[in-house]
């Protein structure tokens, strides 16, 4: 009986280890958690220019994952617009998750947005940050470390309070 229990434990531990290993190999293991270095990415903006996250090293950066069909994203948009145009101690990048340039440009034109939209059409950046839904916001400090991460809509005031707490 004791031998069977020991064999069962070994099999169970091996299964857990293999599961964790496979999770890491297929890219689902999270490296984009608070306290970790933010994964770099290169995405195109709505004009076709390549933008790298590493271009903003030395600056506080706010990433906001967005889609044009997401009601909470649309509801928070005026707050993000105010934050992005009025607050100059952080760079706001809107990552259009799974969206085409045509849809995002239509949204920008209809709403008169002045923000920087990056097209994560294939959701590669979203995958590296383990973003499933939207809106999701990630605050990265000047050293490239993720300092805050949260899901759901936000406000200009909340973003400013979080950033100033980090400085």
At a glance:
With 167 residues, this protein is α/β, with parallel strands linked by helices. Helices cover 40% and strands 22% of the residues.
Q: Mind explaining what this structure looks like?
A:
A 7-stranded mixed sheet has the order 2-1-5-4-3-6-7. It is globular. α2 packs across α5. By secondary structure, the chain is α/β, with parallel strands linked by helices. The protein contains 5 helices and 7 strands, in the order αβββαβαβαββα. The relative contact order is 0.19. It is 40% helix and 22% strand. About 13% of the residues have low confidence. The termini are far apart.
Features:
167 residues; seven-stranded mixed beta sheet; 7 strands; 22% strand; globular
SSE layout and pairing:
Elements: H1 2-25, E1 42-45, E2 50-52, E3 61-66, H2 71-86, E4 91-97, H3 101-111, E5 116-120, H4 124-128, E6 136-140, E7 146-151, H5 156-166
Parallel strand pairs: 3-4, 4-5
Antiparallel strand pairs: 1-2, 1-5, 3-6, 6-7
Helix pairs in contact: 2-5
